[in-house]
Specification:
alpha/beta; Metallo-beta-lactamase, Chain A; 7-stranded mixed β-sheet; 11 strands; 23% helix; globular
């Protein structure tokens, strides 16, 4: 398991629970090239927990991967992106149904942003009364936005039944959502909707599909 995670590029989606409350509600950190990490916070088990998402700046607008967890930061994130890059967000894709990924889908749809999830994610979102996307993906899908191409990939059950990852083949960058954890993480995080039995085999599928992925560590 440890070897598998070491060989997979990942971006932390949920990091260690902090013992101190964060003052900033929104943080944006440059990852590489036109890739950026954004971090918002919410309360989980009486602690402030950071949740990371990613966005990509393209010639045709900005693509957001997952949405802020803090509902007060939906618009501030759009404003910050516009101020920083002079571009608007044109697309948002959520990687599974939990609210730290989907909370902003309805708000962004109302702003004219195209929102996407898989059909499986939509089923769980509907069942759990979570926000839902406008467009649904029935299978792994390749998107071409501006000068970039990326693929959504469903490797199997892990953190949730529906978790997907985003693969940038040319750049060798993998956005793993909550499925991918760090080698020094003490546990797999929130397992309330996880398939622990399938987790390792799901990671092996990711490794097999993306064997030459660059490794980026991002900590809040």
């Amino acid at each position: 398991m440890k070897t598998i995670i070491l060989t997979i590029a990942f971006i932390f989606s949920l990091t260690h629970i902090s013992g101190q409350a964060e003052k900033a509600k929104l943080k944006i950190t440059h990852l590489t090239g036109n890739f950026y990490i954004y971090t918002t916070y919410n309360t989980y088990q009486e602690s402030q927990v950071p949740a990371n998402g990613m966005y990509l700046v393209t010639n045709d607008g900005v693509v957001m991967f997952d949405t802020p967890w803090d509902t007060t930061q939906f618009q501030p994130l759009l404003d910050s992106i516009k101020f920083k890059h002079n571009k608007i967000v044109v697309m948002s894709i959520a990687t599974h149904w939990h609210s730290d990924k989907t909370a902003g889908l309805e708000y962004y749809r109302q702003q004219g942003i195209k929102t996407y999830t898989t059909i499986l994610t939509d089923e769980f979102s509907k069942k759990n009364n979570h926000k839902r996307a406008e467009f649904l993906m029935a299978k792994d899908t390749v998107f071409n936005i501006g000068q970039y191409a990326f693929e959504t990939y469903y490797p199997g059950e892990g953190h949730t039944v529906d978790n997907i990852v985003i693969w940038f083949e040319k750049e060798k960058i993998l956005y793993g959502g909550c499925l991918i954890k760090g080698v020094d993480d003490k546990n797999l995080g929130n397992l309330s909707d996880a398939n622990v039995t399938a987790y390792a085999s799901t990671l092996k599928k990711v490794q097999k599909k993306m064997p030459e992925t660059k490794v980026y560590y991002h900590r809040t």
